[in-house]
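Hi everyone, sorry if this is the wrong subforum. Our group has a chain we'd like a structural model of before ordering constructs, and none of us has done structure prediction before. Sequence below.
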Amino acid sequence: MNLEATLQAVHPLAVRDDERRGGLVALEVRIERVHVAEGVRMAGHADRIDPDRWRPIIMSFQQLYGLSGRLRPSRLAEIDESSYRPRRLAVA
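Answer:
Right subforum, don't worry. Here is the predicted structure as tokens:
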């Protein structure tokens, strides 16, 4: 499944954080068109997804999961999680 979207707005995040200001944004988009593979369409419907045929991939804590568990190794998981942590936060 692929989505076509147009950018509606850019929302700055962490605006009160001197170290992170300008480095984080949230993008607001408007979905214009959805492209769906025929193999996941619900029989008899042009605009419905068959949940028994669709197998999404979900990223959870740097790992790739499907509906039945972990799918395969993730290259993202090779990055030390502390690299994402703001410098001033301490972990107890």
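For your construct planning: Residues 62 and 78 are 9 Å apart (CA to CA). The mean pLDDT is 86.
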